[in-house]
Specification:
Radius of gyration: 28 Å
Helix content: 55-70%
Distance between the termini: 68 Å
Strand content: under 5%
Largest sheet: 2 strands, antiparallel
Strand order of the largest sheet: 1-2
Oligomer: single chain
Order of helices and strands: HHEEHHHHHHHHHHHHHHHH
Length: 379
């Protein structure tokens, strides 16, 4: 019987492997997981960066920083980061490399480590592939983010940028992983400062002065791809990028708002008016940015000024709550007054005071529209 033969053949192969695994497990369990940290001092992670022990110390320091920023337990995050790579020195993981993180988690559990600590050892590697689950608890999030950021900063810092398909340190996966962890868990944290912190931790090893900029650009490029996968076009991404949000979750909130705004009937007209305002202001010399109400002569400019005042109050409040979707839709109230202003009012008036006052009005309008994104690139 073919099936019986196949079964027997498989058992012949699997049995010795399982018995090996049992032996490795029992050998490893003669010591605590933490005792393997000493061995990490002799395992080189990358010659210009140093050993796995050094790298673990760096991840630990960054994990504590992130934990404090997101209200996680910093001592648990530090503990998990300290133990995170210890299983790489165990016999089991040396023989069965696919079990890294998994054995660390089980060995930590058997050592009675806190559950968040043992889970974080496994979850540092998440997501392992596209569509994989991500860490969702604060301690696990802190360790996983620290792990990915230290990888990115370390490898970019020694100028080993990924080329073509070659990405031996998994930098693309690290970047997309940290993007997903921040956005899907609603983690609000200053990403620029996070990279700066990692650069200061790894300072002695960095060869490139542009490390911070390079890592940020690389991650934001992956962010662009992340949105393209969701069917959000590049123009929406670029409109938001122009405002340089330093927080990835904030970036995401703006992207969603601009996507919504683009579907409004007033959006295209407002975007072309905004382009026109940009052009006028870019050619203008220095002018007083304060509007003098007594110099408003034409009906259309008086009307625009009064609508602008109302919208400004509304929009400022919405911005302070990071409610970009409502803020952008409130801007649609400006469409008619702006259209009428350009139809009926000559900005470059003969009288320099009136001209400057109109420029100030446009500048005020420009500042309100520009807060969420540069809508001029949408069309």
């Amino acid at each position: 019987n073919i099936q019986t033969n196949i079964k027997a053949g498989n058992e012949r192969v699997v049995r010795p492997r399982l018995s090996d695994a049992e032996f490795f497990f029992q050998t490893d369990r003669k010591n605590s997981l933490e005792s393997y940290f000493k061995k990490l001092e002799n395992i080189v992670y990358q010659k210009d960066i140093g050993t796995l022990a050094f790298r673990s110390d760096c991840v630990e320091e960054l994990a504590k920083y992130i934990a404090n920023e997101i209200n996680a337990d910093a001592s648990k995050a530090a503990r998990a980061a300290h133990l995170a790579k210890c299983d790489l020195a165990t016999t089991m993981v040396t023989e069965f490399t696919d079990t890294q993180g998994i054995m660390g988690m089980h060995y930590a559990e058997l050592d009675n480590e806190d559950k968040d600590v043992s889970d974080a050892i496994f979850e540092q590697y998440l997501p392992r592939f596209a569509g994989d689950i991500i860490p969702t608890k604060p301690v696990q999030i802190s360790v996983s983010l620290a792990e990915k950021i230290i990888t990115l900063v370390g490898i970019f810092g020694i100028n080993m940028l990924p080329k073509g398909d070659k990405d031996p340190f998994g930098l693309r996966r690290a970047a997309i992983g940290l993007i997903r962890i921040m956005i899907e868990n609603n983690i609000s944290i200053n990403f620029y400062k996070l990279i700066e912190k990692a650069c200061s931790i790894l300072e002695a090893k960095l060869k490139s002065k542009e490390t911070k900029e390079n890592v940020i650009n690389f991650v934001y490029n992956r962010l662009k791809a992340y949105y393209q996968d969701q069917g959000i076009e590049a123009s929406i991404f670029l409109a938001v990028l122009s405002t340089n949000p330093e927080d990835i979750l904030d970036f995401d909130n703006r992207v969603k708002a601009v996507k919504q705004f683009k579907s409004l009937p007033e959006a295209e007209n407002l975007a072309s008016a905004y382009k026109r305002i940009n052009n006028i202001l870019s050619k203008a010399d220095n002018f007083d940015k304060n509007i003098n109400e007594s110099l408003l002569k034409e009906d259309a400019e008086i009307k625009l000024f009064s609508v602008l005042k109302t919208v400004e109050v509304k929009v400022s409040k919405l911005y302070s709550e990071s409610n970009y979707t409502e803020a952008l839709s409130a801007l649609s109230e400006l469409k008619d007054p702006v259209d009428k202003f350009f139809e009926n009012v000559m900005v470059n008036a003969e009288d320099s005071k009136i001209k400057n006052n109109r420029l100030a009005l446009l500048n005020n309008l420009h500042e309100i529209i520009a807060k969420t994104a540069d809508i001029s690139v949408l069309y």
